[in-house]
Amino acid sequence: MNKFITLLIIMFLCLSLSGCWNYHDLDQFYIAAGIAIDKAEDSNLLDVTVEVINSKETSLQPNIESQIVESEGVAVFDAVRKMIRISAKKLYFSHATTIIISEDVAKEGIIPILDWIARDQETRLNMGLFISKEKTAKELLTTQSLPTVIHSFELGRMITESKDYINVPIIRIYELINELAIPKMHSVLPTVEIVNINGKMTNRISGGAVFNKDKLIGYLVEDDILPYLFLKNQVEKGLLKVIDEKIPQDKIILEIFKSKTNIKPVFSGEDIKFDLNVSTSVNIAELDTSTKIDYLSEQGRKALRKTAEENLEADMQKVFKKVQEEFKIDIFGFGNQIRMKYPHMWKKIEKDWDSIFTELELNIK
User: Fold this and answer.
1) Contact yes or no for 186/216 (Cβ under 8 A)
2) How many CB atoms lie within 10 A of CB 350?
3) In what order do the strands lie in the sheet with 251-268?
4) Contact, 186 vs 329, CB < 8 A?
5) Beta-bridge mates of residue 209
6) Strands 251-268 and 238-242
7) What pLDDT score was predicted for residue 166?
8) Predicted TM-score of the model (pTM)
9) Under the phi-then-psi rule, with left for phi > 0, alpha for psi from -120 to 50, and beta for the rest, what region is 24?
10) In a 3-state reduction of DSSP, which class is residue 76?
11) DSSP 163-218
């Protein structure tokens, strides 16, 4: 009898656990795909634009289209709540993949935006964060996309499915929040611009936005990104262009299969240097040469390897010097390497790290 009662109780408990506790009917909400945040004109308010997915049933198949909802508020949450006056439905953010922030907003600081994302129950911490190179961020949500009608999803796919083909400083919301908590650590976010492709305007990821903590202070150009990623030990795949100054007409492209940068701080008295050992496996992807050098022979491959190493080292040193002279902050995480490996040393130099960084030397192999 006791076993029967126990079994009955278990059955009733199982029934009570079935289903989703926060289930919503789709017709009660608009599903948000992406968010653009700008400064409102002639006011101190934020202009928040949300791209929503609208599904229309047809006799053949569902018809998916992108629609824009826009509102102003003193903060992002305030603007989002006001959108129900326009849409007549609450916006559902659990499927949003992209946030685009205008330059004006980024210069003032993005911590309030990150705070809203971290606190809200629906928004995801793995969303992609972009900085607009256009006048406004909302332009990027209304530009005609090439592969899909949902512009926000297109940007999300670019940094997930296409990361092997494009050099992008990929960073998620949770990663950025973690970096902001690390002393003397600064971040680089991907930038987006609008370009003309065969008469059609579309979005293009290009370059990186440099942040001093949460405030935008400048940009890295597209050619800076791959050396920056090598310096950060964040290269997985990609392409390397090899140019020999003696024979610049020869154009050689190497495809990166894997790469690792070992970063080691070296102390000599009060002097600090960093040894970077870069180990990269590549394949000859394209040869466009007019010389008689046989790059496929053992001697030719040896010469090609030497030239590729010299090119990469020069590019890495160039970007490092640019950051030292132009931005004067550590966007590579070298200080964090000392903090993790030599905490006692870091306590002594933390307050002076910005000035130490500008005089830092790299030994790249």
Assistant:
1) no
2) 15
3) 238-242, 251-268, 271-288, 361-364
4) yes
5) 189, 219
6) antiparallel
7) 67
8) 0.87
9) beta
10) helix
11) TTTS-----BHHHHHHHHTSTT---EEEEEEEEEETTEEEEEEEEEEEEETTEEEE
Residues 331 and 319 sit within 8 Å (Cβ to Cβ): no
Residue-by-residue DSSP string for 337-363: HHHHH-HHHHHHHGGGHHHHHHT-EEE
- Sole residue written with tokens 């007409």: 249
The residues that bridge with 192 in the sheet, in sequence order, are 132, 205
Tell me the two tokens of residue 60. 């053949």
The Cα 31–Cα 245 span in angstroms is 54
Q: Which residue has the tokens 């140019």?
A: 243
**pLDDT at position 258:** 92
Q: How far is the C-alpha of 315 from the C-alpha of 241, rounded, in Å?
A: 11
Q: Give the residue ranges of the chain where pLDDT is below 50.
A: none
What is the per-residue pLDDT for 200? 79
d(CA 1, CA 11): 15
142 contacts 255 by C-beta, under 8 angstroms: no
Q: What is the chain's length? A: 365
Spatial separation of the C-alpha atoms in residues 200 and 133, rounded to whole Å: 18
First to last CA, the chain: 77
Say what the pLDDT of residue 1 is: 55
Other beta carbons within 10 angstroms of residue 133's beta carbon come to 19
Please report, as a single letter, which amino acid is at residue 315: D
Token representation of residue 156: 């999300």
The pLDDT of residue 146 is: 57
CA–CA separation, 281 vs 259, rounded Å?
Answer: 6
Q: What is the 3-state secondary structure (H, E, C) of 237-265?
A: CEEEEECCCCCCCCEEEEEEEEEEEEEEE
Two tokens, residue 55: 């599904």
Q: Alpha-carbon torsion 331, 337, 339, 344, what sign?
A: negative
**What was the pLDDT predicted at 324?**
97
Q: Are 364 and 357 in contact (CB under 8 A)?
A: no
